[in-house]
Structures are given as structure tokens and as C-alpha cells.
Amino acid sequence: MIGLEHRLSGSKYVHGHMRNGVGTKTYVAWHGMRRRCFDPNNPKYPVYGGRGITVCDRWSEFSVFLADMGECPNGKTLDRIDVNGNYEPSNCRWATPEEQQNNRRDNVFITHLGETLTIAQWSRKTGLAHETIRRRFLRGAPTDQIMEPAHKPKTHCPHGHVLDEANTALKKGGYRVCRICHRAANAALKLRRKAIEAKDK
């Protein structure tokens, strides 16, 4: 298990990636990668080395890993592009937490209007709750129904009038009313008032 032990000599000092016994982000990423794949005592070994994920021989030396990957950028960590593939130059990148979340083995992908995204991505894109999309997907709903707004805007009022821009008034509280019905209600109210006034005379 070359490279698993913290030694007092070697590439970690030569390349300046161990300072006062603490590794830089790049060194920690390399060291953690190897422990996940080669150390049966590592808590994450069962889902990495335990299922056949390994590290290429080329990256047994930190200096070569550094030359291939460069320094770890702020806000990113080491990620495998193919989550079932090994740690090797062609399959690794520095990725943001969101990119890594979208690259999980247990992600569900949904294709809608020619675009394929995870549930989390569709949630951000449509504004629908993650659980709403997931529940509709598990129910077997077609994709157009999965992506329907939770509350579809009404197209007609209860009396059948079209609620287009010309026939819609926005009242206090943010709710919409049918202008035709609103005018009719006001006219009926005026007639009732006149009838009451005439009766009182």
C-alpha cells in the first residue's frame, strides 16, 4: 500500500504539500483516494476498493498525480467522471459539490423536451419541489405530467369566461378575477341597492 502511510520523507516534503504535518487540499485528496481504494480499515473502503474501484499505477506517486491534475481549486474536490470507473487521469476532475451531487450512482435522470437532468436539477430549473418530482416519477407519470406546475394557472373562470390578459384583473392579495363577472356582480349590486332605496321611499 504505497503512499498510505504518513512518512517524514518523500514527495509530500519535496513538493511542499505537507506543512507542519498537515497536508494541502491536493495532497489530502490524493491520500484519501488511495485509502478509500486500498485500506480495508477505511470506512469508505466497501463502496470503493470493496467493489473493485482502484487507483492507476501512475498515481502511486503524489508528484505524478499533481502533474496530471494540478492544484485543487477552491470549492472543489476530486471526482470520478464515471462513478463506476477507476481513479485515473482520463476519469478524474476537480468538481464542485453540485457537480458531484449530480454524478452520484443513485441519481435518477429524467428526459423532458430533449433535455436530461437529475431530479435535483429539474427541481432547480422548474421551481417544483424535489419530492413532488420524485413522487410523480415513482408513480409512473409521463414526463409532461411530472413537470406540470404544482398549481396550474386557471384558464377560465367558473362561468366559462376566458381568463386572458384583457379579461383578468389583479385584486388585493394577489388573486385574479374575471373582469366580465366582476362587472356583472357590480351591476347586480347596484340594482339591488336601487331596489332597496325605492322600497324605502
Proportion of β residues?
5-15%
Instruction: Estimate the helix proportion, in percent.
Output: 25-40%
Oligomer: single chain
Average pLDDT works out at 81
The number of distinct structural domains comes to 3
Global shape: elongated
Major sheet characteristics = 2 strands, antiparallel
Which sequence of strands runs across the widest sheet? 1-2
Structural class: alpha+beta
List keywords for this structure.
two-stranded antiparallel sheet, 8 helices, 37% helix, disordered N terminus
Summarize the structure.
The protein has about 200 residues and is of the alpha+beta class.
Description:
The chain has 201 residues and is an alpha+beta fold. The protein folds into three domains: 1-104, no CATH class; 107-150, no CATH class; 153-201, no CATH class. 37% of the residues lie in helices and 13% in strands. It is built from eight helices and eight strands. It has helices at 11-14, 25-38, 62-69, 97-101, 119-126, 130-138, 143-146, 179-200, and strands spanning 18-19, 22-23, 77-80, 92-95, 109-112, 115-118, 168-170, 176-178. The strands form four sheets. A two-stranded antiparallel ribbon has the order 1-2. Strands 3-4 form a two-stranded antiparallel sheet. A two-stranded antiparallel ribbon has the order 5-6. The longest helix is centred in the last third of the chain and has 22 residues, at 179-200. The protein is elongated and about 105 Å long. Residues 1-14 have low confidence and may be disordered.
